[in-house]
Amino acid sequence: MKSMEQELLCPVCKDIVKQPIVLPCLHSVCLMCASEVLVQSGYPQPELPPEPNSPASTPNTRSPRQMRRPMPKSDRVDRLLRSGSGTYPGRRRKEGPPLVMLFPCAPCGRDVELGERGLADCMRNLTLERIVERYRHTVSLGSVAVMCQFCKPPQALEATKGCADCRASFCNECFKLYHPWGTPRAQHEHVQPTLNFRPKVLTCPEHDQERLQFYCKSCQMLLCSLCKLRRIHTGHKIAPVTQAYQTLKDKITKELNFILSNQEMVMTQITQLENAITQTEVRVSAKEQLSHCMKEIMALLTERQTMLDQALESSRQRRTEALANQVAEKRSLVEHAGLMAFTQELLKENDPSSFVHAARITHNRLAQSIESVQRFSLSADPSFRHFQLDVSRELKLLTDLNFIQAPLAPVIDTQRTLAYDQLFLCWRLPQDSTPAWHYSVEFRRRGVVPGGGRLEEVTGTCAVIDRLEMDSVYVLRVRGCNKAGFGEYSEEVYLHTPPAPVLNFYLDSRWGLHADRLVLSKEQRCARSVPGLSLLQAADRALTSCHLTADLLVGDVAITQGRHYWACSVEPGSYLVKVGVGLESKLQEWFHLPQDMASPRYDPDSGHDSGAEDSSDSPPPFSFLTMGMGKIYLPSSANSHHANANYRESGFTNGNGPSSPAGVTYPLPPRLGVCLDFEKGRVTFYDAHSLRPLWEGPVDCSAPVCPAFCFIGGGALQLQELVANRNANQTPVRRVTIQSRVTKLN
């Protein structure tokens, strides 16, 4: 039991708590310590109860007649706490806003708001007091004999009983005297003799003598029957305190049993922590590496200093030599010295031929000397002003010299990240992050604890994850690594895989496309409709009968079995684009025998473009969804009710008002997904970004079925590229193929 003494210490005085109160942060401190902390913080001195071992009024100061008066029933400590210790005497009600007390809680490391009443709202921790009393009795701390408070000194005897109602300790004789049989006092509760009497139960700090019988789960606080009626607790989950007691006790018992049953794990972790502390204290390798790096820097600086000193000394010698030569030349021009004396002797020569032969060089020297005198300048700069070092950049580098930090948490690029045939994850590092050598990507299925995976040493800022389960949500996160180790993980991103294997196909250009209206890209994955001259020529007919020409485009794949999924994106500025599936034979028949499509203002069918209005029992040969002008039209039918309801729950609203039997319109999603179940003869359209179903309907699957796209007016669409083909340089030659059933994404 001695090992739990740490749990009984007051965080302020570091001693075993006395008369502990519970702060709003749920930490317990001594009442006197809390009062001293508030006074040191500049708050008024609150009124405190007297010390337990010095009662304000003892039976020794009262007569037996006075002792027969009924004792006060309220707890003195609680009554004094409720007497306004959070305010100062004389404070008026209308003197401004109430004083809010802040208590600096040491365990929390922050200020805790006590409120206007201060310590008056903090209830005593009676449970902790009982634990402290049992602890003292067990370990014999402060085992001082409790004397009877009714015996007259010096004949006072040791107390043998205590009375919780009288809040006093008695010897046997005094107890019988003051608790006679047949009186109400004989029913008082007997306890062990003590100097610290506490109330039997907790009472409300605001409503005197009201027991705390309820617990508010929303506010996480105890309530009395009057506090329960307050407006602030309207709509809160309030339970009886006995129920809260049993629930909390069961939780604590379960948590205690779990910890006790995993003692080996705890001891293993303690050993690991002790080893880590030992390694931290040693830190020899890191210190040696630091010393080695600093020595290398100092050696490089010394070497560089020597080289610069040599360059400076060499320049000084050259300049000194040049200036000395110039001085010698000038000295030769002084009278009776050097060149002047030689010239005077030369002028004494009378033989013309000899004079001319010897005087020409002297003439040249004199001319140079005259020019040097007239244009005098130093032959070398003695200031060395060009030998200045700019070390600002180096000083900044040395100032920023520090231990390398691990990379910060990467930021996921949600615009490029997607789930299709494979998971494609992109990220980037924050601007103030240190570079990363490589990355580690962690992924797992949501709701499945085992079975997670990890990609180690990813060198780029994107990763591809394959071999995934269909129609599953994967949780992914990434972290960087450099010489300092791994950094923090990024925020988790959730990606929903398609509900069926991804079907890879290209737009078929062999059906005789109208080159003047439809243009395919080189990769055959993007199509654009340009109405051009044909629409202009049909202007009269369009204005009079409201008819436009429809251009059909199909995929180069025919499906005969299984479930398949594909996605495409429609340009928001498109006039009208229909995306769906249809029987290959019917589509070919429709294409080779083109007909004018009705304007979107005319609705000849049931609303889902089925093409089968003559028979409601047989499924339609094709099924389309219509998109245009930034909207998507969802037909209203019994088959599509569930999907439309899910889409409305996703937060989208109908742009044209409330739903009607004719259908509703929603904002166009960035990508549209199509899932065909050949065996069931059902086609489902999804918002490919969130995998939320938009609409579901029947389609005739008695023969091969092809993906189909229809353009009315100008528009463009692009098929979703496979993640596996992102790095492919060439587009393979495609033919009409039959897809086999697969169980996983390719």
TrEMBL record:
Domain annotation B30.2/SPRY: ranges: 485-728
A Gene Ontology biological process term: anterograde synaptic vesicle transport
Ranges where the B box-type domain occurs: 199-241
Top-rank taxon, per record: Eukaryota
Entry keyword set: Coiled coil, Metal-binding, Zinc, Zinc-finger
Residues in Fibronectin type-III domain copies: 406-500
COS domain ranges (all copies): 347-404
GO molecular function, one term: zinc ion binding
Biased composition range(s): Basic and acidic residues: 72-81, 602-611
InterPro entries: B30.2/SPRY, B30.2/SPRY_sf, ConA-like_dom_sf, COS_domain, E3_ligase_FN3/SPRY, FN3_dom, FN3_sf, Ig-like_fold
Location of the region described as Disordered in the Swiss-Prot/TrEMBL record: 44-95, 601-620
Cellular component GO terms held in the UniProt record: axon cytoplasm; main axon
Family matches, as PANTHER family: E3 UBIQUITIN-PROTEIN LIGASE TRIM36-RELATED (PTHR24099), TRIPARTITE MOTIF-CONTAINING PROTEIN 46 (PTHR24099:SF20)
Protein name: Tripartite motif containing 46b
